[in-house]
Amino acid sequence: MDTMRGHTRAVTSALLSDALAPLRASPARAAILLDIDGTLSPIVEHAADAHVPETTRLLLITVSRRYGLVACVSGRRASEARAMVSIGAISYLGSHGVELLRAGWTEAKLDPGVEDWVRRIREFGREADTSDLRRRRVRLEDKGAIVAFHWRGAADEEAARAAIDAVAARAEAAGLRTHWGRKVLEVRPPIKMDKGEGIRALLADASEEIDAALYVGDDTTDLDAFRTLTELVAEGRLARAIRVGVSSEEGPSEIAAEADLVVDGPAGVQELLAALIAE
User: Fold this and answer.
1) Structure confidence by residue, pLDDT tens digits, 166-191
2) What is the pLDDT of residues 74-83, one digit of tens each?
């Protein structure tokens, strides 16, 4: 079976059941993979204030009891992602896939190829955290192997973005990589690290026999996960993959273009979770 490529559409509650039928038919052999910010949790001005609504959390708990593998995939550190979702029975891929915190583990495991870069990334963040950035209300977020610069809510977002453009130029001159998201710049090590690679490794190491997977996301970083699921189907590693885009005013147009299904914001994700467990 192939992916649903070429059949992108906004999905109503009435259509969700049919769309998810391949997963619901054999839940023990299916993986449910979800982004957090903008997907499970609404986007807020300050990332530290984000939270997963209790209704969503309870639905996800029921999903975790029914499906073979359930994981949240986040740009946040894995421990922060778990604290935010507050479900210990599922796994977490943090820092865009290079950090794994499996269900039941007390500590996350960082990809060995990234460990040596953590100190350099943090040093860059400290050096870049100038009085000018603080004056412009640019906020830094330590993600371990990544340092993020947020300008959402700055008094003058255009001026703040210009200051962050200069930070990006310095990062690239220093041999680091930059990645732009929704009013955020991430500075990363110059190695491959994305949600797709993290998912590939997670599925390869899964103790469960997984032959179908669903991924839900709203931002540019989630496109890597979409594309990896497509590749896994083409390679014969998965029989079925469903890529769900979460619509938003700020989200990239590529999400809807590459998704198989589109739901309306975190509220639509709640409907999706409910459809996964409907009798």
Assistant:
1) 999 999 999 999 989 888 999 999 88
2) 989 999 999 9
**Cα–Cα distance measured from residue 42 to residue 113, given in angstroms and rounded to the nearest whole number:** 32
Q: How many angstroms separate the CA atoms of 185 and 269, rounded? A: 26
Place of tokens 């950090």: 99
Closest-CA residue to 96 (of 217, 13, 272)? 217
CA–CA gap between residue 110 and residue 44 (Å, rounded): 28
Tell me how far CA of residue 137 lies from CA of 18, 64, 151, 159, in angstroms.
46, 39, 7, 10
Token output for 46: 């300050």
Give the pLDDT confidence of 39-82 residue by residue, as tens digits.
999 988 777 788 999 999 999 999 999 999 999 999 899 999 99
Q: How many whole angstroms separate alpha carbon 219 and alpha carbon 252?
A: 6
3-state secondary structure of 186: strand
Q: Kindly list the distances between the CA atom of residue 231 and the CA atoms of 95, 200, 228, 239, 242, in Å, as whole numbers in the listed order.
A: 22, 10, 5, 11, 12
